[in-house]
Amino acid sequence: MSALPFETLRTAFGAQSLFEDKTWRLSPQAWPIPAAQAEELQAIGSACLEFHQSLEALYLRSVTGKNLLRNKPLTAPWVAEYLDRGKPEALVAHARDPRNRGMFPTVLRPDLLLTDDGFVMTELDSVPGGIGLTAFLNRLYGKEEGVLGSDDAMIRNFYASLAGLRPDVRNPLIALVVSDEAATYRPEMAWIAQQMQIAGQRVFCMRPEDLFPLGGSLFFDVEGNPERIDIIYRFFELFDLPSITTAQYIFEAWAAGDVAIAPPMRPYQEEKLAFALFHHHLLQDYWSEALHGRTLKLLKSLIPRTWVMDPAPLPPGAVLDGPKAAGRTLASWQDLVSATQKERDLIIKISGFHETAWGARSVVLGSDCSREEWQQGVERALELAPTNLHVLQDYRKPRRVRHTLYDAAPPHAPREVDGRLRLCPYYFVVEGKALLSGALATFCPPDKKIIHGMQDAALLPIQLLPAQAGL
């Protein structure tokens, strides 16, 4: 593989405002992906889209009390109750609106950890950051043969996934609306809008307050002239809606059929407890019927065991479907407090619709914290359950791998180092297919238990190796 010089990388990053106030380790090479992993990445995108489609059917049948199976009775009204818990009634009604049926996120980004047993999917994000960053890295490293997305697939397919929402409009005006709460990502969204404009497309990055209603439609000023918006890509979480001053106009324009919105404002699609539903023992027959056999097999290998931490009381003698604590089956989630450190190879995190639901801000890793911190995490999860459910998930430790990084200090010599990897592939849904268009590899020091973008990490595109290269 060819190597990018340190000064070339530093100059490229320094010239871009989208990297303002962000620093990370630099590497001369993209992250190499062997052919077998590349094939799996292709399959994961289709599986994620099929999972969303089956989740929609599960949710809507739960809402209406319809049977979930073809040939035997099974209803699950509790599914909708879980997914709607703590959400405003108007937002729930919007999510259930028949006009939203079949509307799924246009961008799917699973978080994949590379473990000794292969990939593990800890989350599935439908409002992901990093689109512009990954597109830029694909270009920068694109001179290396095999860099995924070096042909600007991220930019091209991002646009196609949005424009496809309004096939009735030629060259639609697309607004990438980034809230102040997500302002960290505004520079990369502005950059990607600029790249689309260079290609002749009408795509603009803006704040929510830049929108204004006019005759039932949504407009914004383009060089002093009002232009009607056809499509909104919302880069804000749904729990932020109360702070979006133009939210009412967005809903009204959507209801009038005047604007399409991606991802759809359907909060159940953004709940981490969807993974707990996938593993729920009462729903196994449903998933077996709803998913293709190969998809079911793949998702079972990817998604770690996950449970909803619902503190609803059990009848005497009943036990929970969950892990063990102090060698005993749980009769209450409070029993988790007594779990030994070995048994605490578990993660607690909030399911969604909360300011701590993104990043790693709500994550408690039991094996990496004190007993007191673990107890506080359990008790907080149960305390918030009436409005914000938490999930408990098996922790699967990423394996040690090696890659070449430049030393942080002069003379910035290249050195092969140990670390752990998180891979975030980006799939854009175009004409009903999830197109793998790029991937962001986060390579962290080996002592980091939770992998995310940080100063000590390297952020890299991926390079697809030919089949004969093996591992």
Strand content: 15-25%
- Distance N terminus to C terminus? 15 Å
Shape: globular
Low-confidence stretches: none
Number of E-state strands: 21
Overall mean pLDDT: 94
Q: How would a textbook summarize the main sheet?
A: 6 strands, antiparallel
The total of helices stands at 12
Rg over CA atoms: 23 Å
Helix percentage range: 25-40%
Name the structural class.
alpha+beta
Topology, pairings included?
Blueprint: H1 6-14, E1 31-33, H2 35-64, H3 77-84, H4 89-96, E2 107-115, E3 118-125, H5 131-140, H6 153-163, E4 174-178, H7 186-198, E5 203-206, E6 212-214, E7 217-222, E8 225-228, E9 231-235, H8 247-255, E10 260-262, H9 274-279, H10 284-290, H11 293-302, E11 306-308, E12 324-325, E13 328-329, E14 346-350, E15 364-365, H12 371-384, E16 390-394, E17 401-406, E18 414-430, E19 433-444, E20 458-460, E21 462-464
Parallel strand pairs: 1-21, 4-5, 4-9, 9-10
Antiparallel strand pairs: 2-3, 2-18, 6-7, 7-8, 11-16, 12-13, 14-15, 14-16, 17-18, 18-19, 19-20
Helix pairs in contact: 2-3, 2-11, 5-7
Main attributes?
23% strand; globular; 471 residues; 12 helices; 6-stranded antiparallel sheet; alpha+beta; 21 strands; single chain; 4-stranded parallel sheet
Could you walk me through the main structural features you see in this protein, from its secondary elements to its overall organization?
It is a single chain. The protein is α+β, with helices and mostly antiparallel strands and 471 residues long. The protein has a domain of 90 residues. The chain is 29% helix and 23% strand. The strands form 6 sheets. Strands 2, 3, 17, 18, 19 and 20 form a 6-stranded antiparallel sheet that branches. A 4-stranded parallel sheet has the order 5-4-9-10. Strand 2 and strand 3 form a beta hairpin. The longest helix is centred in the first third of the chain and has 30 residues. The protein is globular, with a radius of gyration of 23 Å. The two termini are 15 Å apart.
